Amino acid sequence: MAKRHSRSVPLAALVLVLATPVISWWLIGDLTNDEARRLAAEGVELDYAFRPVSLGPAGDHTVGVLACIGGVGALAWLVRATSRRRVDRRWWGVLLPLVGAGILVGFGWQVMTAGGIGANIGAGLTIMFGGPILVVLLVTAAVAAWRLRRGRVGRDRSNAT
After folding, report:
1. Which residues 6+ apart lie within 8 Å of 62 measured at CB?
2. Average pLDDT by stretches of 10, the chain with 161 residues
3. Which of 146, 109, 135 is closest to 27 using CA atoms?
């Protein structure tokens, strides 16, 4: 990415990529419908594709706020570094699919952990459609990174001779 900021730029990119699914998960919130919540309040056991992981309302709120602060800060740092030409703008071709994948993962987790009565059809649809979209996003990011790294290595070799 950049030689002058060899550690801060990759760290900001890592924070952005790791914070995105948490931000998405927190902002979307629990997708359990009102009728299922009412039945759960009456003592009916809800069915889950996966049981949600929770640190309690205060813990979930804290994690969500910290992820938002980290994600927005990392995004601001990367945009600033790009505008000052410290980061090659082509690296956004790697970051944006990873951010999209993070949003999809956060949304998918909320769908998969929604409580209900009977089968969670949303979980099956998330796997059927979200899985291939996730693979496409990750492959896109990997190919873009490979092409950027390959181009840099080729230039470095030609400059060395």
Report:
1. 55
2. 62 94 94 85 84 88 96 94 86 94 95 84 90 96 90 52 44
3. 109
Tens of pLDDT, residue by residue over 146-160, are 998 887 654 544 444
Q: What is the C-alpha to C-alpha distance for residues 99 and 131, in angstroms, rounded to an integer?
A: 15
What tokens does 12 get?
Answer: 């900001």
**What is the C-alpha to C-alpha distance for residues 145 and 39, in angstroms, rounded to an integer?**
49
Reduce the secondary structure of the chain to three states and give it as a string: CCCCCCCHHHHHHHHHHHHHHHHHHHHHCCCCCHHHHHHHHCCCCCECCCCCCCCHHHHHHHHHHHHHHHHHHHHHHHHHHHHCCCCCHHHHHHHHHHHHHHHHHHHHHHHHCCCECCCCHHHHHHHHHHHHHHHHHHHHHHHHHHHHHHHHHHHHHHHHC
Phi, psi for 142 (deg, rounded to 5)? -65, -45
Say which residue the tokens 């948490």 belong to.
Answer: 22
For the chain, the straight-line distance linking the first and the last C-alpha, in angstroms and rounded, comes to: 23
